[in-house]
Amino acid sequence: MASFPPRKLKRSNVKVDIPHAREPLTAEQFVKLFRTTLASTKPVEDLEGETRAMVYALAFCSGLRRREIASLTPESFTLGESPSLVVEAANSKHRDLDVAPIRPAIVPSLVAWLAKLPADQPLVPNFATKDTRH
Fold first, then answer.
1. Residue 88 contacts by C-beta under 8 Å, 6 or more apart in sequence?
2. Which domain range does residue 53 map to?
3. What is d(CA 114, CA 57) in angstroms, rounded to the nearest whole number?
4. Residue 128 located in a structural domain
5. In total, how many domains does the chain have?
6. Which of 10, 55, 96, 127 is spaced 20 to 30 A from 47 at the CA atom?
7. pLDDT in tens, 6-26
8. Inter-residue contact 113 to 57 (CB < 8 Å)
9. Distances from the Cα of 107 to the Cαs of 10, 50, 64, 78, 112, in angstroms?
10. Tell me: the pLDDT tens digits for 50-87?
11. Burial of 8: CB neighbours in 10 Å, binned 0-12, 13-18, 19+
12. % of the chain with per-residue pLDDT over 90
């Protein structure tokens, strides 16, 4: 019977063997991504350009994760003097009610996009259930 764990496997160095080294986008890189995506006519993961651009903006400007963004509805937003959004505890990575500020620069785009969506429905239906592993 083989021993467990197999003795012939080499240990990897987690400091060197990073599968996907990630660095945050600069503001300039994000603006380019946002504008390119907004103008895109090619659906990606069944999302058209405007929706993808707004999802990217929410993630970039708030730090929210996919599941948290998927839980949002237009009613999750307060876009007045101190723009913010609310993530319910059940969907928060902290498992607590999260109120996240929104950068004022994206508020005009958010207002225009949210006006097109049903108030009580998720911003991106089925977004949390999509398989993003490639």
1. 71, 97
2. 27-114
3. 13
4. no
5. 1
6. 96
7. 566 566 665 666 666 678 889
8. no
9. 51, 15, 16, 10, 9
10. 999 999 999 888 888 888 888 899 998 998 889 998 88
11. exposed
12. 34
